[in-house]
């Protein structure tokens, strides 16, 4: 089955490259560093380091505290961080800089995988969340590289997909020494699709362990005053195509009662910045762009067209809509506004954050809406009730505080995996 998978993957390569070329029309970074996607690297060879894979921006943000903790515990081990997307790559370089080595993970083709592992020779492989690659995992097993999936999550839909290929999935997961799942439901699904029960544990979600720098609240207050003065601020973070118009309609409805309301809109993908600005203009809104470095002034919409500032802008806002949830993307991280004490609103499509969203709603720290009309109603109701808004924000922050601790548990499990691997090697 794995040979068939590899053969089909090789046949798909021309179409994958064509897609990269198509995406590069709007995002030129997609046409760069293609050699890395086939395991060919210009950086020096390495040996014996810790390798962490985070597919894109969301996984990278979750991985940063873990990477720092692992580097602190293993100061003599070099750290390699791989991503798949240019936005993830840019975020790794911006946050971690030269403290780590960074390349793209190659496609899951036998030759590329072998070249990658030969080039870097990691002594620990850590994969974030949901990435499962048959050739890569099998090669790690063959080389006796301890392999872990951490902050692991598996939706019912994904489990059904993997369940259609039980032999391939079971063989793939046989090389994994640790699956540190976010919830018991995630752990059960991994076992259901073929993971060995003794390798699966529940450690919680490390996204609760947000690391806010000292003085961040004061910095956020100053930024808000500088950019928005005394205006109310609604932020729509990580929006996808199909969500911007409902957000703008909701904003327009709220503006009928709250004339000083400002909207910050942060598209998830940089290639959409210009299109979102054009959409705002077509709806009659004046736009200021963060990259221009000027306050909102007399404009209506502040386009957050930079990377890495979303968490800070959640903290400067009165209300937050978290995107990827009005369209079937699966949602994005509502813990970021919650940790800042900002009420989080989100749509019905939450399969990537099912447990988090459910628990946040139960804690009274979030509000789910079905469409743009309900979003507008919720915004109006919360802006009209400052005390209720503050209570929801306080409950959201408390929910995040109570969920902390997964980071240390994951790091401890990784230490145990390393110890067990060394003991087996010495037998």
Overview of the molecule:
- The chain has about 425 residues and is α/β, with parallel strands linked by helices.
- The chain folds into two domains: about 210 residues, 3-Layer(aba) Sandwich (Rossmann fold); about 190 residues, Rossmann fold, CATH 3.40.50.2000.
- Helix content is about 45%, strand content about 15%.
- It contains 17 helices and 14 strands.
- Strand 2, helix 3 and strand 3 form a beta-alpha-beta unit.
What is the CA-based Rg, rounded? Answer: 22 Å
Describe the main β-sheet briefly: 7 strands, parallel
Whole-number mean pLDDT: 94
Based on helices, strands and strand pairing, what is the structural class? alpha/beta
Estimate nothing, just give the exact number of structural domains.
2
CATH homology-level superfamily of the largest domain:
3-Deoxy-D-manno-octulosonic-acid transferase, N-terminal domain
**Poorly predicted regions:** none
- Cα distance, first to last residue? 33 Å
Tell how many strands the DSSP assignment holds: 14
CATH arch. level architecture of the largest domain: 3-Layer(aba) Sandwich
CATH topology of the largest domain: Rossmann fold
- Strand share of the residues? 5-15%
Strand order of the largest sheet: 3-2-1-4-5-6-7
**Tally of alpha and pi helices:** 17
């Amino acid at each position: 089955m794995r040979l068939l998978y590899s053969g089909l993957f090789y046949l798909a390569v021309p179409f994958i490259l064509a897609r990269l070329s198509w995406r590069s029309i709007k995002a030129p970074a997609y046409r760069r560093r293609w050699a890395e996607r086939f395991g060919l690297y210009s950086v020096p060879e390495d040996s014996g380091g810790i390798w962490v894979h985070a597919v894109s921006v969301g996984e990278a943000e979750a991985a940063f505290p873990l990477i720092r903790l692992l580097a602190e515990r293993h100061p003599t081990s070099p750290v390699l961080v791989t991503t798949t997307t240019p936005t993830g790559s840019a975020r790794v370089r911006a946050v971690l800089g030269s403290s780590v080595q960074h390349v793209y993970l190659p496609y899951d083709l036998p030759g590329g995988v072998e070249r990658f592992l030969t080039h870097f020779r990691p002594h620990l492989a850590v994969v974030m969340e949901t990435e499962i690659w048959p050739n890569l995992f099998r090669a790690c097993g063959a080389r006796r590289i301890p392999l872990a999936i951490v902050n692991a999550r598996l939706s019912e839909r994904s489990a059904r997909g993997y369940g259609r290929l039980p032999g391939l999935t079971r063989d793939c997961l046989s090389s994994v020494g640790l699956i540190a799942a976010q919830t018991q439901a995630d752990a059960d699904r991994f076992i259901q699709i073929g993971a060995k029960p003794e390798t699966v544990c529940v450690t919680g979600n490390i996204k609760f362990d947000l690391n806010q720098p000292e003085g961040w609240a004061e910095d956020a207050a100053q930024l808000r005053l500088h950019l928005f003065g005394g205006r109310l601020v609604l932020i729509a973070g990580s929006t996808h195509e199909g969500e911007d118009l409902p957000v703008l309609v909701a904003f327009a409805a709220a503006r009928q009662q709250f004339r000083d309301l400002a909207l910050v809109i942060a598209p998830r993908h940089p290639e959409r910045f210009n299109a979102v600005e054009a959409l705002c203009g077509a709806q009659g809104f004046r736009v200021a762009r963060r990259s221009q470095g000027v306050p909102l002034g007399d404009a209506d919409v502040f386009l957050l067209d930079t990377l890495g500032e979303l968490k800070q802008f959640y903290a400067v806002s009165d209300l937050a809509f978290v995107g990827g949830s009005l369209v079937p993307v699966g949602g994005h991280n509502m813990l970021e506004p919650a940790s800042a004490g900002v009420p989080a609103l989100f749509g019905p499509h939450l399969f990537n954050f099912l447990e988090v969203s459910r628990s946040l709603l139960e804690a009274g720290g979030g509000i789910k809406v079905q469409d743009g009309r309900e979003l507008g109603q919720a915004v109006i109701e919360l802006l009209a009730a400052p005390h209720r808004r503050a209570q929801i924000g306080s409950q959201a922050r408390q929910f995040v505080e109570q969920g902390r601790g997964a980071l240390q548990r994951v790091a401890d499990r990784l230490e145990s995996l390393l110890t067990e691997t060394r003991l087996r090697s010495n037998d």
